[in-house]
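Review form for a predicted model. The reviewer records the input and the model, then writes brief findings.
Reviewer: anonymous (R2)
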Amino acid sequence: MVKQEIIIVDEKNLEKVKKKISKDGSDSFHVLADFDRTLTYGLDADGKIRTATVISQLRADPKYLGEDYKKVAEEMFEEYHPLEVDSDHPMDAKKEKMRERWQKHFDWIAKNGLTKKIIQQVVHERSLRFRKGALEFMKELNDRNIPLVIMSAAPGDMLIAYLEYQGLMFPNVYVVANRYEFDSMGRALRIKEPIIHTFNKTEITLNNHPIYEKIKDRKNVLLLGDSLGDEGMIEGFRYKNLIKIGFLNEEVEKNLEAFRNAYDVVLTGDQDFTYVNRIMGEML
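Model under review:
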């Protein structure tokens, strides 16, 4: 297993920003987070196998969308995932490939018969592995009326269904994710534009989203992510103070330098939410 470390890039600056956020209070604060492998673990309990994401649950069992879907979805993953996690590959090329990947996959899901009923079946049968302390983190935010904006490349209809099933779709939670158009029978027709993928979150500006009215005056932000694309979630938002925490779940040696450049704090070794909850307690 990868060693668990808390790497603070600039401790003096971090303390300064924490004090500013604390002074302004919770009414000036919101959280912006990725979902898969950020609120959930990146690896299994042994630290060897990648945990299921929202979208990967559909290929976990052919009874949901069929053998053909499962086979092609797995082939897509094997083709595109190595590129996704390669920090040395040019970002423009990665963006183009990720857009291609998600368009093909979302179209393939609809073609193979995704329905609202299947979504509910998957959610009830296939659990997600939330990080220890993440559920308490979300409940604390709700109790204090602090908005939690989840920006994800996952199928948003499934993500919301998971949150509802876990009792976590609180009034303070807002999901910005890929959503399907459904017909009157609940069958998925097509994915709505714009498609969100791992590396275009800089282009999904919250200023143009209905949620903006809820957060526009909350200019102190805690950003949580697990990829180099997640730091871009804040793009276009005129924040006052920002702390970015990145979960570096795998290939630490290869990606650490890039993560240090992207985040204020890097958590290695697929950690739980102990540090996140601690820093929240120190600020608010």
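Findings: The domain at 6-50+129-283 is CATH 3.40.50.1000 (Rossmann fold).
Further findings: The chain has a mean pLDDT of 93.
Recommendation: see findings above.
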